Every structure is written in structure tokens, then in C-alpha cells.
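User: My instructor asked us to take a sequence, write out its structure as C-alpha cells, and then describe one feature of it. I'm not sure where to start. Here is the sequence I was given:
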Amino acid sequence: MYFLYSLLLVAWGVLLLPFFLYRSRRRGRRLEGIAERFGRLPASVGPSDKGVIWFHSCSVGETLSLEPLVQALRARLPGAAHVFSTVTPTGRRVAADRFGAGGVFYFPVDFAFVVRRVLDRIQPAAIVIIDTEIWPNLLHAAKRRGIPVVLVNGRISPSSFPWYRRARPLFRHVLWNYEALLMQSPADAERILAMGAPRDRVRVTGNLKFDREVPDSALLHDFEKDFLAGAGPLIVAGSTHPGEEAQLLATLAALRGTPGHAEVRLLLAPRHPERFDEAARLAGEMGFSVRRRSRPEPGAAEVLLLDTLGELAAVYRYADVVFVGGTLVGHGGHSILEPAAFGRAIVVGPSMGNFQAIADAFLARGALCRITAGEEDPELQRRQLLDVFLGLLQNAGERERMGAAAGAILAENRGAARSAAGVVAALFEKRRGA
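Assistant: Let's start with the prediction itself. The C-alpha cells for your sequence are:
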């Protein structure tokens, strides 16, 4: 099975290589981390006499969700060394910023000879994979060496589950390589069991993102006096995708044309860095003054562009209303927990499949506003956005009520990091003892 998987992986890589080369040239960037992806790790990444825990997260959101777990494990296993791998360049930069650049590298291509080389180099006592990333050759090689692999914050979305279930004969073998599968919710646990996971290794420990600490405002003291300077309410639109900026900017124009709301401002934070310039251009073409975080200029602006990495969570502190992106288009949405940590009124679109259980809990408690119009009816979307934004901006009491409800949900659901750290620490110590 693993040999066939490797052949398919080679074929997939050959087919996609022209696309990656084209995209790299179009963006004016070289393909990053080729040597690391084939197992040539930085000199700073290696074994430790006290044992190594290898953490893997795909991109920015998953990397940030690691923070509470890493803190909990540092308290339980103060001598253990930590190394971190990511798939994307943005994830790598955030990991280096949060955890130290010396122990960060690109995740290896899942060829058997590559993962063997990486395991030889790191010699981890445990591997922690965040969210549902399944790499058969890495899992198989780790199992053969007796290295425990733990899936933390596991999630199987309703949309992907039918495909996973059809591939049960494959996943059943692969999932048995995990020592523990720590899932976000009972529904996620049932789905991974239906995929063939061993029942005695599946647990529900909750969502790590509930445990993330509120960012320290001292780190961003210049936001208020510099970047966010200016009068008027602020709508922060985080993790936006193509098509959403245009809708939000059109809604901003309608808001500013409404009596009493001429000073409303919009902060855009596109999900992908390569779209920063596109968002700035679009706002300028629609007649708005634009100020970019990366290019400080004096004076206020109608549209602010957060074109930096790792600051979005903290900038939510300054929002009057928050819109979470990936929800007006069929992406499935992004986490609403970061703005909830600041007690902000949150607005989303209809597409929240990636965080459906969390969205349902917030909706049930009145901690979330959700417009219903899909991307096939942009005019209705804009009307609904305008109505929701106007209603919240005109009612400070409702914004405070929503924020308090969100804070209560967060408080009730903390503890995933502590539970996961207990499982990882026990497996780490068992491996070290062996």
C-alpha cells in the first residue's frame, strides 16, 4: 500500500510542478525551502539529550493554535526540546516569530527516504500533528521506530467526510499508526471512527483555539497612536478572500453615505499575503483613501490595510464590529474565537462549514450575527451586510451583550491544551523510558 501511495505521490508532484513554477514566477518568488522539504534541515534542528518533540502545523492558523499546547508542555516537560515544521512560507515565518527561528523548518515531502532522513536527524521522542493532516509514509516510519504520533485538534469537516469514508480501506491502515487521536468534538470523533480509527485511541479533548491567550496590547502600542489614528467607528474584516473585499468596500461606501455614519472606517486583512496589493488597488479604485500597515504614512484613512503577518489577532481589540472572512464565499470560514476573546460583536456570512460546531454554539447564545445570502446573490449580500453593520454600530448595548456571551462560551470551553499536553507528555515519557 505504501509503495503505491509513493508512486501516486510522485505522479501528483510531476503533474503539479509546472503549476508551482508558474505561480512562483508570476509572484516574483523562488520556490522556498526545497532543500528542507527534501530532508536537508538547518544545522540548528537536531536531536537533544533531553528528548525532542516535533510539532507540525500546516499554515498560520494552525501554527498560532499551537501556542497554548506548547506552553503547557514546556511547563510539564521543561527539559524537552521543541522543533516545528510548517507547509507554507507564511506559516514558517509565524512559527519562527512565535517559537524561535532556530527550531523551524519546512515539512518534508512524504517520500519514505525523505522522512527517514528527517527522523534520523531529529530523533524525536514524540510527534504532534495539528488538525487533520495525514501523511502515510511519515506515520508508517514513525510507527516502525516506536515514535508515538499524536493528532491534536483533530477535525473532519462534514464536506470532506464522505470522501474520507469512501477511502476507509486506506485510512483504516494509516490511522492505526497514531498512538492517540485527540478530536475537537464528539462529531469529529464519530467521523474518524467511521474512517477506521481504533476506538481506544480516539478521545474528545476540545479545540485548542479556545485556550489561546489574548494578545498583549503592549506589543501593538503603536496601533492606536499611529496606524489606527483617526475618528470614527472601525470595522475589522479579518482573513478575507477574493470577492469579499469588493463586497465589504461597497458596503462601506453605503455606510458612509448613511446619515450619522460618514466617519466609519474599514480595516482589511486579506488571508493570503500575495493579495495585499490587490486589496489596496481595489480600495483605491473605489475612491477610498488607503493606509497600509507596512508603509506608515501620516494622516487618517478610510480604509486600512493590515499587510503584515501575526498581528490580526491583536488588532481585533480595536474593532467596534468584526467581520470574519472566508464566509461570504464558499470557503468554509475562519475562526471566530480570536475576536471573541476581546468581546467583540462578530459578523459572518453563510459559509462556516470549517467551524460549524463553534458557529452553532455562538448562534445559539446570540454571540454571532450571520447573514444568509450566498455569493450567487451579491446585491442581497450587500444589503444584508449594510443592515447588520448599521444595527450593531447604532446599538452599543447589543455589541456589549454579544461580546459578553462570546466570552462566556470561551470560558466554558477552555482546557483542551491541558488535556492534550497530558496525553503527549505521558507518551513522551514512556518513549524516553523505553
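For the description part of your assignment, you could build on this observation: DSSP finds 19 helices and 14 strands in the chain. Try explaining in your own words what that tells you about the chain.
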